[in-house]
Amino acid sequence: MRAKRIVLGFAAVFVLATAFVSYRLIWGTPFSFTHLMTRQAIEMIADSPQALTSVGLFDGAWYDITSDKLDPYSLADRDKRFARIRRLDAELTAWDRTRFSHQEQLSYDILHWTYGRMLADANYPWLGANNKPYPVEQAFGFQKNIINFLLSTHQIKNARLARHYVERVKAVGPLIDAVRVDVERQAKLGVVAPDFIIDRSITQMQALIAPAPKDNALVKTLAEKSKAIGLDAAERQSLIDDTTVTVAQSVYPAYRRLIAEEKALLPHASHDAGIWRLKGGSAYYADQLKLLTTTDMTPEEIHAYGLSEVTRISAEEDRILKSVGLTQGSVAERMAKLQADPRFLYANTDAGRAAQLSRYREILAAMKLQLPKVFAHLPAIPLKVERVPVFAEKGSAGAYYERPSLDGKRPGIFFANERNPSAVPMWAMPTLAYHEGIPGHHLQIATVTEMTILPFQRRMGGNSAFAEGWALYAEHLAKEMGAYDNDPYGDLGRLQAEMFRAVRLVVDTGMHAKHWSREQAIAYMVEKTAMNEEEVTAEIERYVVWPGQACAYKIGMKAILEAREKAKAELGAKFDLKAYHTLVLNNGAMPLWLLQRNVTEWVNARR
């Protein structure tokens, strides 16, 4: 009897202890700051089935109960996100930062700054439920991104994921209808996208629903990927048939309703490009610049810096153009002549597209061999080069990068837009590959993805100024590594790319702060970069729908390069470029002001 009481007593203590630990783990006071960050990360990501898929840790496992769902879209969900961020920030600031280790202080500062910038959007109730000015637009619009997510991010590696893919396709129609309702709400508040943005979006959606349902990319992707995993033939056909019916009876009708809504808005749409035309638009733009450049630079300061950089880069271009015998006409006219030179162009054919993609792969393979000269560690996560999905080509940028999964099983992908291969001449390809691939986006993102000692937020988080600044810094680094030695045309490609980013500072602030028109911005960019007008138009319209983001690149590069040169000047012979790159990359993305402070502390420690 006594033994039984002892056993029961131990059992009660165990249950109480387990309950207490569980409470502390999930709801109560965290055991440590690391525990707090982990708990906050889990809470943030657990509410987003699509984010869980992007992380890629659970999809397809027997306990996977989320990869058959899409993220909800409503004002109520937006308000819930704001409330959660306020609570998480309050939890964070309740801790005494002075008692933390250096890495914990970095995490604290990054999170606190990030939460504050996210909450700034709450000041603008006219934003869409996704906190964007225009939920439907040609570059990053919900109606486009949800399809891209299903085609490239949702992996079909087993039967469970194939079934879940079908369930997600079934959720597309209701989500598109929810977006349509939100667009109607915004219109009543006076928020309507510019007429040319609506036109582009309508054209893009019409292209999406133009094929017969059985030939739609959503169906064909399932057919191709399910065949590769050896799915039972009868079940595979059943899933394909189910998806085809869903596309015909749910997805297409929802898109037709959204197209009709967009057409109805056209008579009420302005042709003005800038966000200034919306109530509170100028304040919103200033907030976006703080978020996206992670600095306190004003639109006027950024505009002036952009103009000065355009002048400097133009002079460098002029010098190299003369060295290759191009002496007649303005810099822009000579660059345009070079841009049209058939010696450097791929044919606008399937063979030309395949050749261009193959060349990108060759360029990246050659660069990979040179990276150990300036980097102490290279990530193991592979990089793939793929074509932008055909339906999305017209409204997409010339190239973009898609990050790998957290476990590295889904590689990083450099997507090249092949709608017109001749838009990117051969001499411009190396710089584009270095920016999107290595030593640019892929090297930076894959490196921090593999840094398991960092908290989740720093492995998967980031900001445009750091990420895009690093990619532009990588273009400059490639020159320092000798990538353009004895290749003046390739160096012109580098300068054209940097000119492109300097011009972005001018046209973004021009449209959103100085009331430039779309046409004025296009003309300025064509004049200064000599880029193809079709390519420039896509870029300018991208800046229209994401105010401020185009400023992140050059401001980010400026900060990373200036921090390096300052460290080099102060350390002299003690400066180690590999160590500097390790410091920048292995700590993950952070606001530029924090990066500069971190570099200063590193310099003082080494000195």
Task: Jot down its keywords.
globular, 3 domains, 3 strands, 24 helices, mainly alpha, three-stranded mixed β-sheet, 607 residues
Descriptive account of the structure:
The protein folds into 3 domains: about 1-30; about 75-270, no CATH class; about 285-560, no CATH class. The protein has a 3-stranded mixed sheet, covered by helices on one side. α15 (about 430-435) packs across α19 (about 490-515). The longest helix is centred in the middle third of the chain and has 33 residues, at about 235-265. About 40% of the residues are buried. By secondary structure, it is an all-alpha fold. Residues about 5-25 have low confidence and may be disordered. It contains 24 helices and 3 strands.
Distinct helical segment count: 24
N→C terminal distance: 71 Å
Largest sheet: 3 strands, mixed
Number of strands: 3
Query: In percent terms, what proportion of residues is strand?
Result: under 5%
The helix/strand order is: HHHHHHHHHHHHHHEEEHHHHHHHHHH
Silhouette = globular
**Which structural category do the helix and sheet elements fall into?**
mainly alpha
Poorly predicted runs are 5-27
How many domains in all?
Answer: 3
Q: What helical percentage do the residues reach?
A: 55-70%
Average residue pLDDT: 92
**Can you list the strand order of the major beta sheet?**
1-3-2
Rg, Å, rounded: 26 Å
Give a short summary of the structure:
The chain is mainly α.
